[in-house]
Amino acid sequence: MRDESIFDLDELNEECGVFGIIGHADAAQLTYYGLHALQHRGQESAGIVTTDGQKFSVQRGTGLVTEVFNNNNIKQLLGSTGIGHVRYSTTGGTGLANAQPLVFKYAKGELAIATKGNLVNAKKLRRDLEELGSIFQTTTDTEVIAHLIARSSAPNIVEAAKEALNQLVGAYALMIMTNDTLIVAEDPHGLRPLSMAKMGEATVFSSETCAFDVIGAEFVRDIEPGEMLVFDAEGMRTTTFAPKAERAICSFEHVYFARPDSNVGGVNVHAARKRMGRILAEEAPVEADVVTGVPDSSTSAAIGFAEATGIPYELGLIKNRYVGRTFIQPSQELREQGVKMKLSAVRGVVAGKRVVMVDDSIVRGTTSRRIVTMLREAGATEVHVRISSPPVKNPCFYGIDTPDREQLIAAQKTVEEIRQEIGADTLTFISVEGMLRAIGRPASERNRGHCIACFTGEYPTVLEDELVLEGKR
Ligand code: SF4
């Protein structure tokens, strides 16, 4: 989990964010601003690769976007086309070698690749490639894609990329850049959203639409599942590289990952979270004096819950925004003495009150227990916990950092047992149906076009590497 030792919270974390631009004189700077808007999706490393049509300029490093880039190194990123990446690593490990975009030299020239998501057959592909003589320099899925492209006998990069993508199984939004071509593609289920915008003559791509607003680009549309867009000397064209499968956007984007000002699958995230709060109030009403959300991702759902019940919404919990990567973490002893780093309960708001605490998810249960305790210590007379996602019972194999099933409290315990463990007076999770209704995409699509595997175990793809591990393949 991200900086567990520093933040002391057991959140789910996404692996990456990608951003790309073609046809703008300030490609590097705009990519920098885009990545900054996507920083919540990964803080481990950041990188930008640009091309002036002749050669690449590359800047990558570990740390935050503001730590990796400065005025000097941004100026050295030449050209009007660029791709960028922020990374939070699970698969592939940490470190500069795995920082993206990855850059390769192969028989036909230079290649830069930035991906977001996770392949579920990467281990198998890697093993096959190694048997054919490929030597890997990183432990990322992205390098597997590069080797597949490099080994292809297809006549050009577009056909080679298609051939490579057809061998991948899993979740990915990716950008492949050479000195004369930019390729943007989305996996056949559309698990990891990718959107397109226009900025004058330039075309922009981003994992999340919030990056468009930051740079003043105008949203055009989402990339379709199985779609590949190609930009080269002939202009832009769209093609499909695989038959479109059932759409399965990660439902956790709406619950937690995406910024509230982003739209995912055509639905505003803040509005969806508010509806989750409203539906949670319908599904599990409670008598209380104040509603509070665990900042920041649960604020919208808490507002929805308050609106639906008429119980006032209050800032009962405050986040300390300045806990940074270099923060000296307190020892276990100091922590037990009550030194809290990330969250504080507001005594004046909760003392003597029956509190509804809305949170977006329970992973291991440790965070919920600490927050409930914190609210009681601040004088809350009752703490009613309402969770705006269904119980997380299964790990994610598509690029979200979830612990093993053994550590997922909802996989091990009943709701009543979890309630006892976290010390709440009552505990309710939203239903799967309620969450999907709150997001509100068309009911005609299976699961309204969402992946819900971590709640139900219904994975949208075959989990090839897992089957191998289990000896079933
Ligand atoms: S398993 Fe859960 S976290 Fe992973 S893609 Fe599906 S909905 Fe998202």
Automatic annotation (TrEMBL):
<comment type="similarity">
    <text>In the C-terminal section; belongs to the purine/pyrimidine phosphoribosyltransferase family.</text>
</comment>
<feature type="binding site">
    <location>
        <position position="297"/>
    </location>
    <ligand>
        <name>Mg(2+)</name>
    </ligand>
</feature>
<keyword id="KW-0808">Transferase</keyword>
<keyword id="KW-0658">Purine biosynthesis</keyword>
<keyword id="KW-0479">Metal-binding</keyword>
<feature type="active site" description="Nucleophile">
    <location>
        <position position="16"/>
    </location>
</feature>
<keyword id="KW-0328">Glycosyltransferase</keyword>
<feature type="binding site">
    <location>
        <position position="359"/>
    </location>
    <ligand>
        <name>Mg(2+)</name>
    </ligand>
</feature>
<keyword id="KW-0460">Magnesium</keyword>
<dbReference type="InterPro" id="IPR017932">
    <property type="entry name" value="GATase_2_dom"/>
</dbReference>
<dbReference type="GO" id="GO:0004044">
    <property type="term" value="F:amidophosphoribosyltransferase activity"/>
</dbReference>
<comment type="pathway">
    <text>Purine metabolism; IMP biosynthesis via de novo pathway; N(1)-(5-phospho-D-ribosyl)glycinamide from 5-phospho-alpha-D-ribose 1-diphosphate: step 1/2.</text>
</comment>
<keyword id="KW-0315">Glutamine amidotransferase</keyword>
<feature type="binding site">
    <location>
        <position position="451"/>
    </location>
    <ligand>
        <name>[4Fe-4S] cluster</name>
    </ligand>
</feature>
<feature type="binding site">
    <location>
        <position position="454"/>
    </location>
    <ligand>
        <name>[4Fe-4S] cluster</name>
    </ligand>
</feature>
<keyword id="KW-0004">4Fe-4S</keyword>
<keyword id="KW-0411">Iron-sulfur</keyword>
<dbReference type="Pfam" id="PF13522">
    <property type="entry name" value="GATase_6"/>
</dbReference>
<feature type="binding site">
    <location>
        <position position="396"/>
    </location>
    <ligand>
        <name>[4Fe-4S] cluster</name>
    </ligand>
</feature>
<comment type="function">
    <text>Catalyzes the formation of phosphoribosylamine from phosphoribosylpyrophosphate (PRPP) and glutamine.</text>
</comment>
<feature type="domain" description="Glutamine amidotransferase type-2">
    <location>
        <begin position="16"/>
        <end position="234"/>
    </location>
</feature>
<dbReference type="GO" id="GO:0000287">
    <property type="term" value="F:magnesium ion binding"/>
</dbReference>
<feature type="binding site">
    <location>
        <position position="250"/>
    </location>
    <ligand>
        <name>[4Fe-4S] cluster</name>
    </ligand>
</feature>
<dbReference type="InterPro" id="IPR029055">
    <property type="entry name" value="Ntn_hydrolases_N"/>
</dbReference>
<dbReference type="InterPro" id="IPR000836">
    <property type="entry name" value="PRTase_dom"/>
</dbReference>
<keyword id="KW-0408">Iron</keyword>
<dbReference type="InterPro" id="IPR035584">
    <property type="entry name" value="PurF_N"/>
</dbReference>
<feature type="binding site">
    <location>
        <position position="360"/>
    </location>
    <ligand>
        <name>Mg(2+)</name>
    </ligand>
</feature>
<dbReference type="GO" id="GO:0009113">
    <property type="term" value="P:purine nucleobase biosynthetic process"/>
</dbReference>
<dbReference type="GO" id="GO:0051539">
    <property type="term" value="F:4 iron, 4 sulfur cluster binding"/>
</dbReference>
<dbReference type="InterPro" id="IPR005854">
    <property type="entry name" value="PurF"/>
</dbReference>
<dbReference type="GO" id="GO:0006189">
    <property type="term" value="P:'de novo' IMP biosynthetic process"/>
</dbReference>
<protein>
    <recommendedName>
        <fullName>Amidophosphoribosyltransferase</fullName>
        <ecNumber>2.4.2.14</ecNumber>
    </recommendedName>
</protein>
<dbReference type="InterPro" id="IPR029057">
    <property type="entry name" value="PRTase-like"/>
</dbReference>
